[in-house]
């Protein structure tokens, strides 16, 4: 499996805080099966100092992130992906010699903050499982929920380059 999961997260986002343990569980489940996972923080440390490198390292250690947690200081990567909130999840499929294909851009699951309703559907996990078992799967984006980031222009010509670089 050469598929890749890219997620935009940050330390201070209440939606990310709500999902951290589940994100780690999902990564621990699928990384041994060949899924490459990376987390990226694109927040400005001027406006959100708690999202700086030293705090990111502490966060990764505390939650035992099994994936790289990278800092996008210039926000170039977030702009190329069109990331508009945290958390923001992307799943790419690699099929032989063909370029990476975006098959999922959506929320992690159907849970909500301050809700006592248990999560009933891990949308990212469902899509990953389908990638493992069903060829040709394509999942469209639906409604993202999270901490809104500034709107960015999408530069699709750079997206393939950025995915291949992970």
From TrEMBL:
InterPro entries: AhpC/TSA (IPR000866), PRX-like1 (IPR047262), Thioredoxin-like_sf (IPR036249)
Pfam family, one: AhpC-TSA
SUPFAM superfamilies named in the record: Thioredoxin-like (SSF52833)
CDD domains xref list: PRX_like1 (cd02969)
Span of domain Alkyl hydroperoxide reductase subunit C/ Thiol specific antioxidant: 6-96
PANTHER family recorded: OS07G0260300 PROTEIN, THIOREDOXIN-DEPENDENT PEROXIREDOXIN
Protein name, UniProt field: Alkyl hydroperoxide reductase subunit C/ Thiol specific antioxidant domain-containing protein
């Amino acid at each position: 499996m050469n598929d890749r999961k890219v997620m935009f997260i940050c330390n201070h986002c209440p939606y990310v805080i709500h999902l951290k343990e589940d994100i780690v569980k999902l990564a621990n489940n699928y990384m041994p099966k060949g899924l490459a996972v990376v987390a990226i923080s694109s927040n400005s440390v001027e406006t959100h100092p708690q999202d700086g490198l030293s705090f990111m390292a502490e966060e990764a250690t505390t939650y035992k992130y099994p994936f790289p947690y990278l800092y996008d200081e210039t926000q170039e990567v977030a702009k190329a992906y069109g990331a508009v909130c945290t958390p923001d999840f992307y799943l790419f499929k690699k099929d032989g010699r063909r370029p990476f294909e975006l098959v999922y851009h959506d929320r992690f699951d159907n849970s909500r903050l301050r809700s006592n309703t248990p999560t009933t559907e891990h949308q990212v996990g469902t899509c990953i499982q389908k990638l493992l078992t069903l060829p040709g799967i394509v999942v469209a984006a639906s409604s993202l929920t999270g901490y809104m980031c500034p709107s960015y222009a999408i530069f699709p010509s750079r997206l393939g380059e950025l995915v291949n670089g992970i």
